[in-house]
Amino acid sequence: MHNNEMAIYPVKWKLIVLFVLSVLFVVIGLLFVTKAIYNVNSVSSIVITMVILILLHLIDSRKLRKSNAEAYAKIFSPKNVLAPIAFMSLVIILEIIDQTRIINRYLLGTISILHFGLSAIYFLYRLVLSKPSLIINDKGLNDNSSLLSAGEITWEEIDEITMYSYMGNRFVGITVNEDKAKRLNKIKRMLLKARNVISISEKSVSIPLTELYDILNELWQRQIQAKDDSDDTRSGNAASETGINRRV
Fold first, then answer.
1. b/e sequence 156-169, b meaning 16+ C-beta within 10 Å
2. CA distance linking residue 189 with residue 18, whole number of Å
3. What is the overall mean pLDDT for the chain?
């Protein structure tokens, strides 16, 4: 164990709530796929709800872009805007051409089962094993805060640490360098919304997010300063040796 190691655990009641909600949405997905929900109006209501959520996603993205263009550019890529629009367009087209709503029912049901099924398994795993969301020490941090957690990140692998808000939630965004990003498995790289940015949600930690941001930023800045001092020392020693050699 490293000196000054700090372990930050998730709040258990939040994990329980997220697990129950995930299971609920899995059940709804199963009801759709097994035709237990077959009423046309019920399917249409779910479609309308999804369209509204996607619109909120786009509106919130636009707000973030206006308030902090630099953070938006780092956190989001064009596919995060185009993908929801494409999906929303597909759902609306299917809603128009398929009066029975069978395709939309299977589409929404399958997405719900896959997405929330994985989420439920993850939340149950976190509840049973009770692992820390983050472990912070003098070498860096170990991220286990979400399904897309990055694992071990050294301070040298971090390019920037920011805070941002999205869809009513606050996050700490850790921008990692390309070397670290390449070591993530392909699935995590594909699913990451960010451009080499690991996002830590306030829901996954038990301390205030501003406090977490201050801790990470302070340790990271200290590491940068120590590295700069070390480089200056090496440069000074190299210059001294060159001068001695010339005199000799």
1. ebbebbbbbbbeee
2. 24
3. 75
